[in-house]
Amino acid sequence: MLDDSQRARIDTSKPHSARFWNYFVGGKDNYEVDREIGDQIKSIFPGLVDVAVTSRRFLGRAVRHLAEEQGVRQFLDIGTGLPTADNTHEVAQRVAPDARIVYVDNDPIVLAHANALLTSTPEGVTAYLDADLYDPEAVLEAAAGTLDLSRPVGLMILNTLGHVADYGQARELVRRLMAGLPAGSHLVISDSTATSEGMIAASEAYNSSGAVPYYVRPVAEIAGFFEGLELVRPGVVRVPEWRPERSGGAELDTAVDAYCGVGRKL
Question: Which residues does UniProt call coiled coil (predicted)?
Fold first, then answer.
């Protein structure tokens, strides 16, 4: 349940990024204002739906890679968004029931749904923090109540860094988060990119809607987040191209304007 201060932070008069994204991936936790801007953007750039869907599938592949091939048993997911299907904890705990996952967001709507929907296997743990990306040290300190930060962690920051307007600040936030994690930890990032006129127009329409802005970046800037880390093959690529599964042939034909990568801390 939300307290009065949290309810006061909910604004249903303007689109909201988590609800907007929820609408695009077929969820039901959104309002008319979110669907209106969603439909407007679909008319401008239908490809954004593909970005939403393929980015969600990338999350699953990345988590499975870390849990199955790298033995990672701890995940810190920042910018959780609204729960849908195959959230980080569900994917990780299917591979490793003892996996421990901490979700981080500072949105009261996300908090309400997270408390209701984010469950765990008996062997593992799923926790939620009402915390702010802009205070990395506080995030890490709070996460340490659930995670052992002396052991490798998979740091997930998906479709979130675009909300940080200043690129230098975004890189510094990532650097500070990774500085608090040990060797063997992995950084997982995906974000929409300024790789087509349609995506740029969609971003401008969204930003003019009154929602918290989301800035699309050049691919080189996405790659810059992994400076100092060992990139996992195939490197920074379009979201469908990162370790596609055998059934992903049709998805590979989708020229989405979103890039991703996974980097390992040495």
Answer: none
In whole angstroms, give the CA distance from residue 144 to residue 138: 10
Dig out the tokens for 28 from the structure: 């039901």
- The whole model's pTM is what? 0.89
pLDDT one-digit tens code per residue, 79-116: 887 777 789 999 999 999 999 999 998 877 777 777 66
* Cβ contacts of 141 within 8 Å, gap of 6 or more: none
Q: Name the residue with tokens 């979700």.
A: 103
Place of tokens 């969820």: 27
Are 221 and 190 in contact by the 8 Å Cβ rule? The answer is no
Backbone angles phi, psi at 263, to 5 degrees: -125, 145
Residue 194 tokens read as 């300024």
Largest CA distance in the chain: 49
Rounded distance between C-alpha atoms, residue 4 and residue 19, angstroms: 21
Instruction: Pull the structure tokens for residue 146.
Output: 């659930």
Torsion sign over Cα 226, 59, 177, 214:
positive
Encoded tokens for 222:
């996405």
**Average pLDDT value for the chain:** 89
DSSP strand pairing (258-264 vs 186-192): antiparallel
